[in-house]
Amino acid sequence: MSVVVAPSPILAVPGAVAGAAGSPDAAVAWHYGDPFREQRAAAERVAIVDRSHRFVLKITGAERLTWLHTITSQHIANLGDGRSAENLDLDLNGRVLHHFVLTELDATVWIDTEGEHGPALLEFLAKMVFWADAKPVEAADHAVLSLLGPRITELTEALGISTLPETYDAVPLPDGGFLRRMPWPTADSFDLVIPRDQLADRWARLTAAGAEPAGMWAFEALRVAALRPRIGLDTDERTIPHEARWIGGVAEHGAVHLDKGCYRGQETVARVHNLGKPPRHLVLLHLDGSADERPTTGEDVTVGGRAVGRLGTVIDHYEFGPIALALIKRTIPAGTELVAGPTAAAIDPDSVPSEDAPQAGRIAVDRLRGR
Entry's SUPFAM superfamilies (predicted)? Predict the structure, then answer.
C-alpha cells in the first residue's frame, strides 16, 4: 500500500517544480528551473535540497542502542553520543527491506528513511520491542534538509555553529534539531534534521546566506554518480546487501557489519561473504543520449534479448549525460553491449566491484578437502 506524503511548504518557493505525480519525490521540488546549474552548485559551491519527504522517527529508553543492535545489520551497541550510522532491516532470507540512517544524540536515536517505507519500518520496530527498555515513535514534527558543496563553510554563522562535524558526526543546532555530516552523495554532504515548523525559516535563512536552491534531480544525479542505491528504486524484492554495496561497518561507510552478533538475515550475509558471491552487483550505466525514448526504473537490462539485470534510477547528469544504476548479473563483462529498455547502454568499467579476493570460508573448505 502506498503512503501519501504531504506536499512540502518549500514548493511555494518561486520556480519550484514538484516531482512527477506518483513518484517517490512528488511531495518536494524536483528542480527550480535549471537542473544542471543546480547540480553544479551542489558539486562546486553550496546548494540546499528539500528532502522533507523523508520519514523521521525516534527511539528513547535506556536500551535503545543495544536493542536496535540485535535486530539490525549494523554494529551500533556502543555508538557514541553525536555519532551516526547507516543500517538495514533484512528479512529471514537476508533480503533488504529497509535502509535507514540513524543518529544517537542526547539519549535519543533519530532515524530517517524513505517516506513510503517509514510506517512499515516503525511498525516492525514497535513489534520487536518485547521487554526491552526502548520506545520507537514517529516524530512527524521533524524533517530533513540537505546541504551539499564545498562552500558550506560559509554557512556556519547562519546555522548557529562554530565548526562543521566530521563524517557521520552530528552536532545540535541552537534552535533544535541537528546537523549531520554524510559521506555521500558528495564529499561535502550534510543533513539538517530539524523541527518541521522551521522548514521555511531555515530555508530562507540559508538561501539568504548563499545556499542555492537545488531540487531532488540534483541530489539524485550526484547520488547515482556516487554509486549509492536508493531502496525501492535501485533494489527489488530479491536484493541482498552484497549486491547493493551496503557491506561494511561505520568506518567503511557501509550498513552491514560483518563481525557482529545474530540478527535476522545474518545467515545469508555470512554465507555470501564466506562461501559464495552475490548473483548480481550494482553498476553505473551510461545510456545512449541520442535515443528517442528513455528507459524507466524497473525495466529489464538485456543482452541479445536475454534479461541480465534490472534498471534502477535513470537520471541526467550535468557532466556524464544520461546515466543509471542497475543490478546486473555478476558474470556479465563490463564491455558487453547492453540494452536498457529501448536504449543502448554500457557499463562504466570503473563501477564494477572487485570480487577476486579469496574468501575465508572457501579457503577453509578447500583445505579440508586437501586442495
Answer: Folate-binding domain
| Amino acid symbol at 64 | R
d(CA 124, CA 136): 10
Q: Which residue has the cell 555470501?
A: 272
Query: What single string gives the DSSP state of each residue in 52-84?
Result: TTSEEEEEESTTHHHHHHHHSSS--TTPPTTEE
Phi-psi region of 258 (alpha: psi -120 to 50; beta: other; left: phi over 0): alpha
d(CA 207, CA 211): 4
Phi, psi torsion values for 268, nearest 5 degrees: -65, -45
Nearest Cα neighbor of 232 from 121, 152, 332 is 121
The closest alpha carbon to 329, from 297, 359, 306, belongs to 306
pLDDT tens over the chain, length 371 residues: 456 688 999 999 999 999 999 999 999 999 999 999 999 999 999 999 999 999 999 999 999 999 999 999 999 999 999 999 999 999 999 999 999 999 999 999 999 999 999 999 999 999 999 999 999 998 779 999 999 999 999 999 999 999 999 999 999 999 999 999 999 999 999 999 999 999 999 999 999 999 999 999 999 999 999 999 999 999 999 999 999 999 999 999 999 999 987 899 999 999 999 988 999 999 999 999 888 889 999 999 999 999 999 999 999 999 999 999 999 999 999 999 999 999 999 999 999 998 665 544 433 334 434 55
